[in-house]
Amino acid sequence: MNLQFNNFIPLKLVNAIIYSQSAQVELDNITMSSSDLTMILTIYTNKDISSSELAEKMGCTKSYVSQVVTRLEHQGYIYRKQLPERKRFFALYLTKKGYEMAQAFSEYVANNNAIVLNKTLEFCSKEEFETFIKVGDIIGQTMLDHMFNIYEK
Any idea what the Cα angle at residue 144 is, between residues 138 and 147, rounded to 5°? Predict the structure, then answer.
């Protein structure tokens, strides 16, 4: 059985997984820290996001986000743009290089998820697998809620 799908694991959960690990991610000979990649993916999935909103979504301090944003800006992955309707608001956007990195990682996740799905379906039914995914979503959301509660304290 060979199923096709795009978002086997929610991107939010992928962000939580890679953010919680201090691993390096390597794509097409580009090595990037998991926190940098998480930031790029968060910008990729959130239109017109500010540094403050990014800090809130990632569960880290504004000062940390500012440091990483500056580094990613210097590396050519993101840029800031002032929105005309909000003079003191700078939104973060991906450059072509940043967009390509986000796309490459999204494809990497989708490809690996396809392999995992097909291998798993060799050992269980589609219904059993769907139940497993529902439970995984609940666990993932609980983990995210817990992570954000820790950072809010």
Answer: 140
- Residues 116-148: pLDDT tens digits? 778 888 888 888 888 988 898 888 888 877 766
pLDDT tens-digit map of 31-73: 677 788 889 989 998 888 999 999 888 888 899 999 999 999 9
- Cα–Cα distance for residue pair 66/72, rounded to 1 Å: 10
Of 74, 68, 76, nearest in space to 94 by CA? 76
Q: Which residue has the tokens 């820290």?
A: 33
Q: How far is residue 22's CA from residue 4's CA, in Å, rounded to a whole number?
A: 31
CA distances from 130 to 82, 136, 137 (A): 44, 10, 10
Q: Using CA atoms, how far apart are residues 139 and 9, in angstroms rounded to an integer?
A: 12
What is the pTM for the complete model shown? 0.61
